[in-house]
Amino acid sequence: MSPPTSNSCAEMYRHSNRDESFTSYRTSTYKLHLHETISGYKFVILTDPKADSLRPVLQQIYAGPFVEYVVRNPLFKMDSKEYGIDNEYFRTSIDRLVRSLSVFM
Q: What is the pLDDT of residue 18?
């Protein structure tokens, strides 16, 4: 089974029970971890299906690199969903953080 596309992730989220907090979805080949902020930003990461929750890591990404390099950056267009986050500092920070996780070693 191939990893989910952003459309299939959105579809799973739409069909989840909104009264319960949707934080992960597991298949036999991957586990999708989700953190949604109050302001509506969604942070997603895929891991091995046996991995523990990475929601705290996604919260850390939001509170750290995202706020520092995206929210506080006056040159960043907050409506750039089509192009993603094009900020080298943000990408480098995320790469460093993810590579340091034991689940990715």
A: 47
Residue-range domain boundaries for the chain: 6-104
Q: What amino acid occupies position 83?
A: Y
pTM for the predicted model, two decimal places: 0.73
- If DSSP codes are grouped into helix, strand and coil, which group holds residue 14? helix
The closest alpha carbon to 66, from 87, 83, 46, belongs to 87
Whether the CB-CB separation of 79 and 61 falls below 8 Å is answered with: no
User: What's the CA dihedral at 64, 70, 72, 73 to 10 degrees?
Assistant: 140
| 97 neighbors 65 (Cβ within 8 angstroms) | yes
User: What is the spatial distance between Cα 52 and Cα 10, in angstroms, rounded to a whole number?
Assistant: 22
Tell me the fold of 6-104: Beta-Lactamase (3.30.450)
